[in-house]
Amino acid sequence: MPQTMTEKILARAAGRPRVVPGEEITARPDFVIAYDFPGYTDVFFKETREDFGIEKVSSPERFVLFIDHMVPATAPKEEELHKITRAWGKEQGVPVHEREGIGHQVAAELGYATPGAFAVHFDGHVSQLGAFGTFAFGARKGVLESFVTETLTLTVPATVKVELTGTLQPGVMARDVFHHMVRVMGPASCRFKVVELCGPVIDAMSIEGRQTLCGQAMFLGATTMLIAPDAKTLDYVRGRSKIALDPVYPDADASYDSVVTIDVSALEPIVVIPPSPANTRDLKDYTGVEVHTGYLGSCASGRLEDLRIAAEVLRGRRIQPGFQLHVVPTSKAIMAAAAREGLIEVLVEAGAFISSPSCDYCFGRIATMSDGQRAVSTGTLNTPGRMGSVDSEIYICNAAVVAASALEGRIADPRPYLAAAPEGVSA
Known about the structure:
By secondary structure, this protein is an alpha/beta fold. It is built from 15 helices and 18 strands.
């Protein structure tokens, strides 16, 4: 019987020839991923031992921990959590990666994004590993089951196929594409389902752009998002993958819950207005709105192509006096590569503040706004209080829009700046 990528991956993980949507299965994740966050990892460590009597996980090679929030620690309780995380990893023989960047990105760099693999995390943004053909599932506190039994019980989700057609215009990036998908399909359109992306736009898109798309799956209501591996994927994972698996592809005649085709040829840069990531609007309708700060980073952006296009906008220019532009590369490796390319120099000379890779700005630990202020952001959420005061506002947009807005102190279209660049850029 023809199967989707999702069905094939979950069938293998469950040790079964096939699975069908709606069926409850028990599957063995290839990777169990977590990061330092109070109420999650510290609780998992404690309950695994005290409530279930598990002194040692039997396959530590499947586990990986990241210290990517609350770095550096600003209070003793934060460092205490880090100590607990380090100690558990050492005791269990589980690798702990500290201050190397945002875990979802670093997991890909380290080889946990393996085509055909099944990965679990408590954080839904792990779905970005789907850019590599990995079924990566944010199970919230259900991940505890994987710590105790090394399996996970779940209901096989239905799959929605989304084909992206056309050609992206200059200045339009993956962030714009995803939020346009939300606008067209609806924020709950794929609730408890998996999205499998395909089409010429995906074929032409960079690995980084695909990560941006897949990492936002939750804002369609989706469990996760997948892209079938191609030459770009296989080139990236070659020499990285932690395990040897055959890539998985959907059958040509697979049965989907629905099939959606979206032509993005006419798409222009967008902005997502507060207070919800469901509020996609055309950028042109909000240009001129005064903004006071900008954030370029998060697991959804802050990669090399984001830093490159921001640098093209900012090269030889200075940001508006009083505007605060915070740039946070997604990983240490990306930050180093950006430095080698001279991008960091361009951003600093323009007036940007560069921070070490972490999740701090995105999840609100570092509060940058007071009452009445507005931000342009490549972060994942624009809910009240996400970047400071609950009486501030966050406008989500692509990296080029953040850079152009920093120059003008108001929401701005980056395309005139990109057109004026000596060599231009390809978004």
